[in-house]
Amino acid sequence: MKLLILNSCVSGGGAGRSLEAYFKHISPEIDAHVVMPEPGVIGETLSPKANLWFIPEFVERIHRSPYKLRPWLNHPYVHILINLFVLGKAAKRISTLAKEIKPDTIYCNHMLANPVGAYIGWKLNIPVVFHARNIHVAWFGRLSYTFLAKLDGVKAIICNSEASAELFLRTVPEKVKIIHNFLDTSKFDRTNIIPALRQEYAIPSNAIVAGYLGRILPKKGVDVLIRAFQKVYERCPNLYLVILGGNDGGIKNDLQSEYRDLCDTLGIGDRVIFTGFKKDIRPYMVDFDFVVLPSVEPESFGRVLIEGMAYSIPSITTDIGGAVEVIKHQVNGLHVPPRDATILAQALETLASDHEFRKNMGKRGHDRLLTEFSSHVLADQISNVFTGSPQADKLNVAV
User: HSE (CB half, 13 Å, CA atoms) of 104?
Assistant: First the structure.
């Protein structure tokens, strides 16, 4: 079958990384054509198994248009208005491409791909499959994606967690397929990776590293993590905090600089390290002793959590959204309330001070990864949705 995949997530976000993992085990029955704005960090991985088509107007972030604006116009809301027209242009170009390819199904792998794919599917009478990897908090998002989900042309909605499925289970439960994110575990094999973090940033060999990995956005709660670290700074003199990631391109403010200044103001800058964006996160993440995902808004899944599990690294995460489906409290990590720096500080101190506790949690997490988030099994389940396998009706899997 021919599958047209719309994926605008190319700069290292979860949707793009998940597509990479899927292509490791994509069904040989599928002739894949992938539309992206540019190759980004995943194009090289996808190209051996797919035909790639690059359309710059198919933007990755609604707050960032493909045009350079004068300083007085360079505001996220201006970019949003521009992108409403830009995405229309992208839809027209992708529609022309779809007429040439004649796909059997359109697979929308990113939030902004859904309206574009739904329009093209309606226009050309091609079945559409959404992959929901977001939790829509704002009323406009919930209303918009509920409307799209109800369209007759949208045949299935793959959700990466029960949390991301909640919106669609209320309205179109018959379309929902819950298939969790997964990893290509061979890519995250610790024995094949040369650690770089401690050496590159002169972190002592006996230090304990608490690591945040991801884009720097207000909803990620990095400021809460910094304030929690300040509370244990003196009590845990061998604990370091590493922020692995850079500013999101759709946000105007330079949050990385703001958070670095906050660390200096709090007197903890000597043990907080900002690495910026890294194309390959593995040599840095492998040096973490535990992962912290302090999100103040619910994550649909939290891909960094299973990346940590691949290295037998436990996690601290807030007790909201899909993260609680991945991390079980006191089993392979700890849960804390969102925005509570005091309780997060207690969790940091607990993991920093008990090596055996961390080790046992990490082992249980790795075992759980192999049984619950197997890339081969879950990739086959996604392919079954496209190919119409009878097994596709049995895909509502829960952790």
Answer: 11
Over the Cα atoms of the chain, what is R_g? 21
Residues of the chain predicted below pLDDT 50: 390-399
pLDDT score, position 261: 97
CA 390 to chain centroid: 29
In this structure, the answer to whether residues 100 and 229 fall within a common structural domain is: no
The 10s digit of each residue's pLDDT in 306-340 is 999 999 999 999 999 999 999 999 999 999 999 99
For the record, the structure tokens of 105 come out as: 């199904």
Give me 26's structure tokens: 């994509």
Q: Which helix (H) or strand (E) holds 317?
A: strand 315-318
Please identify which residue in the block is written with the tokens 């939790």. Answer: 135
Residues 306 and 222 in one domain: yes
Q: Check residue 395 and give its pLDDT.
A: 42
CB-based contact 305:315 (threshold 8 Å): yes
pTM surpassing 0.85? yes
134: left (phi over 0), alpha (psi -120 to 50) or beta: beta
Domain span holding position 111: 2-182+374-394
> In the structure encoding, which two tokens stand for residue 28, read together?
């040989």
Cα separation of 188 and 167, whole Å? Answer: 32
